[in-house]
Design goal:
Elements: H1 4-29, H2 36-39, E1 47-53, E2 63-68, E3 74-79, E4 85-89, E5 92-95, E6 104-107, H3 109-114, E7 124-127, E8 134-141, E9 152-153, E10 171-172, H4 173-183, H5 189-192
Antiparallel strand pairs: 1-8, 2-7, 3-6, 3-8, 4-5, 4-7, 9-10
The structure holds 2-oxoglutaric acid and fe (ii) ion.
InterPro entries: IPNS-like_FE2OG_OXY, IPNS-like_sf, Oxoglu/Fe-dep_dioxygenase_dom
Pfam families: 2OG-FeII_Oxy (PF03171)
Family: Belongs to the iron/ascorbate-dependent oxidoreductase family.
Length: 196
Amino acid sequence: MLICSDVLFEYAKQLKDLGKTLFDLLSEALGLKPSYLTDIECNQGQVIVCHYYPPCPQPELAIGTSRHSDYGFLTILLQDEIGGLQVLHDDRWVDVAPTPGAFIVNIGDLLQLVSNDGFRSVEHRVLTKNTAPRVSIACFFSTQFHPASTRMYGPIKELLSNENPPLYRETLVRDYVKHYFSIGLDGKTAISDFML
Ligand SMILES: O=C(O)CCC(=O)C(=O)O
Ligand SMILES: [Fe+2]
């Protein structure tokens, strides 16, 4: 017998390992030691959200998910073969064609904030389709459900200099996420509200 919660917990565990590898690589790409982003607990929280999009009889009149950037540090997304995901690139919406067995990895707002724009969160949306239902599974790395966390996140000090001053104010993850959801999905409004 296949128990859904067993599968989900195993999936979460595997993605946590993958997340660790990605955070190592992202730290190195910023010129920091590989463990930097995990040392500051960017990989600690994991929120897994399963989306079901029913077929829509009039896709031109509806949207699956409104334009937004993800709030957390990083998102690992699994989509099925239906398609509909688009990213904003050079002010144009570009289809993210489904590739069997491949994950989509999105930089989130909090990674933009700590990297002081070294990485930029990506704006994306999901169109509806009238062909078949669509399923996607998003794994967000973010710690808003650790209410005891007192860690403040701001631009990483090692990345700052006279030429590269801090662009964002410090925040608790839960305060950032609260602000994000108080606005609702709306492009990149939340992160711009944290600019100095
Ligand atoms: O359904 C998708 O492919 C993406 C959903 C999404 O953008 C999100 O959960 O943040
Ligand atoms: Fe998203």
